[in-house]
Fold this sequence. Notes:
By secondary structure, the chain is α/β, with parallel strands linked by helices. It has helices at 24-28, 30-46, 58-70, 125-136, and strands at residues 8-11, 19-22, 51-55, 73-77, 87-94, 97-104, 113-121, 140-150, 164-170. The strands form three sheets. A five-stranded parallel sheet has the order 4-3-7-8-9, sandwiched between helices. A two-stranded antiparallel ribbon has the order 1-2. The two termini are 22 Å apart.
Amino acid sequence: MDLKAYIRDIPDFPKPGIVFKDITPLFLDHAALDHTVGALADYAREREADYVVSAEARGFVLGGALADRSGAGFILARKPGKLPRDTASVEYQLEYGVDALEVHADAVADGSRVLVHDDLLATGGTAEALCGLVEQAGAEVAGCAFVIELAFLRGRARLAGHDVHSLVSYEEE
């Protein structure tokens, strides 16, 4: 299935010069959504993932379905202050500042294999932070799975040493 047919370009969003990759058309089409979740779940099973970790908010949209379809548990990575128990956290650089993600401190068992998932790989900052959280907990990053990769931004380089899988890649802006 050609998933690019379900990804809409939105020019100048969220700011001038940016072309936003909108995947809501993919979510609206059951066959495209089923194909996407299935392809990501196949990868998770190949990587023998015990858990899938996804960052809010868009990573959650497919993360839970991916975990369910692959037979793995699902770990929520949230912005600081959103989880009710003890957390482990990691800060990461954004183009315009610093952000942070947290998971429950007991969410990842030592020695577990965790698949890092997000809808989009751009510069790699969020995925790199998720990998750091997984490794900080003593677990192993089983791989990193994305629907879309903006290859021209070279986010894959920040994930060096980890297996990276994307369903759709854009080589040019």
